[in-house]
Amino acid sequence: MKAKIMKNIIFKNKKEFRKYCKNRLKNCKNRIKRDFFVNQKLMKYIDEIRAKNILLYMPLKEEADIIKLLQTIRKRDRFAVFVPFMEGVSFKMVKFRLPLYIKKFNIKEPKNSFAISKRIDLAIVPTLGVDGTFRRIGFGKGMYDRFFESLPYRPKIAFVESVECFTASHVGESHDIQADIYITPYKTIRRGQR
Q1: How far apart are CA 124 and CA 137, in angstroms?
Q2: Residue 122: its pLDDT value, please?
Q3: Residue from 191, 56, 46, 89 nearest 130 by CA
């Protein structure tokens, strides 16, 4: 289904939209090509906003694979890369370093660190879909929502996914995080520029 048609579909709630997005993702073809484009667009955005301290995620099978981006920015001295380290129902940022260990939900993460994390300029966040208020419809655990609520500042936030799943419906809730930009392989949408 084309994105233009999807925008006209009215979703009653987050659960219904999440199910729709999961189905689109499940039927997505050419993931390697799509993720290549996502990585390119993310690098352009990082350069555009001159981000130096970046929170990335370690992708799960259904999320946009941003490992190439991670490898690219780790080679450059100007960047500090952080990833989530799960703690209870949320997570904290830890500096990316090897080796990685598989934890709950099959998420890869480095060992815990007790060093105080730097203030991040940009957070790259996986999403299932984005609603008409630019709120994240995620996988239903609420970890990103709790993490950002705990930050005393607001970094730039980029939502990414391998297949566009955007609706004009307002299905998100007030606690759902909002992005500054939504990046998919073939479309980039900035909040307020639809």
Answers
A1: 14
A2: 96
A3: 191
